[in-house]
Amino acid sequence: MINEKDILLNLLRLFSKDISLNQARRVLRMRKDTFTILLKQAIESKFLTKKNNRYILTPKARQLIEKNDTNFFRCSCNTGFKIPRKLLLKANQYCKLRVIPNVEIDQCPTTPEDLACRVVFMYENGDLSGKRILCIGDNDFASLLMFEITRPKEVVVIDVDDRVLTTIQKISKNQKWPIKTKKFDIRKFSKENFPKDLESKFDVFQTDPPYTEVGFKYYLALGMTALKRKGTCYVVAPHMNLEDWSDELLYEIEKFLLEHGFLISDILSSFQSFIDKYGIISSIIRAERTNLIRKSFPALKQLNIDKFYTIR
């Protein structure tokens, strides 16, 4: 695991490449307040000076970089996807239609650019065209953007927020897209209570759950129940340096997937950021279901549903 000294050194390397503060924070996978503390430490240690709202490397910092001249393989926060301008315009258009986030149910919108990257990532893996897709929670309107790239066979959106479902219904009806919506409170998901018409029906599910262990496991369990054999899932998960809770949560997510017969094919770090005051940075996980299928209901019985959302 990377330590504070290494992160400080990487910060200085990034400033030597003259990239923006936001790009540096994203590459380093740090929350806004943690990044601010790191900048303060760099100034106190005489590695940076601030002039006209710009951070400038000191001679001391340049000497440190030269002394520790290793290959720093990340030079920007580019995810590697070239997003067509037309798609980005559509992402911006849909983002303007989003509902006011309800923080009590952990709604936190991603940026239009990152939403487009998520959908492009799914498309390039062959997980959109002609597929049956389940979106578990969709206040970002990823379901709508999918149809701007290709033609999924069917998309079903599950959400607890009527405002989200109504907007998706209205747009999909006007466009004649095969998108269905279903209101369901995932906290009530159990062996006895789940939408049985969705069981083992989908090729793909994608989700960005509440950032708690309980929330993730419930969302994943619902997706696993709805997924066909050999299906694929996409999961957005927090992943930040100097944040032990995000390491621990990512470990629990990966463990849950592996225990229930999934092979993790990809984890792309620094993949998604959010329009919020905290500056959370998330990775995206792609996992494929193997022939080893295990029911997820027993694992949910051990969880405290009162810890489903981050705000309790």
**General form:** globular
Main sheet attributes: strand count, strand direction, barrel closure: 7 strands, mixed
Number of helices: 11
The H-and-E topology, N to C, reads as HHHEEHHHEHEHEEHEHEEH
E-strand count: 9
Measured distance between first and last alpha carbons: 30 Å
Q: Which CATH first-tier class of the largest domain would you pick?
A: Alpha Beta
Radius of gyration: 21 Å
> How is the largest sheet built, in terms of strand order?
5-4-3-6-7-9-8
Q: How much β-strand is present in the residues?
A: 15-25%
By CATH, the architecture of the largest domain is named 3-Layer(aba) Sandwich
What is the CATH T-level topology of the largest domain?
Answer: Rossmann fold
Residue windows where pLDDT falls under 50 for at least 5 positions = 70-79
Label the structural class: alpha/beta
Number of domains: 2
Topology readout:
Layout lengths: L3 H13 L4 H7 L4 H13 L3 E4 L2 E4 L1 H9 L17 H11 L16 H13 L7 E5 L5 H5 L7 E6 L2 H14 L3 E5 L18 E6 L5 H14 E12 L5 H16 L2 E12 L7 E9 L7 H4 L12
Parallel strand pairs: 3-4, 3-6, 4-5, 6-7
Antiparallel strand pairs: 1-2, 7-9, 8-9
Helix pairs in contact: 1-4, 5-6, 9-10
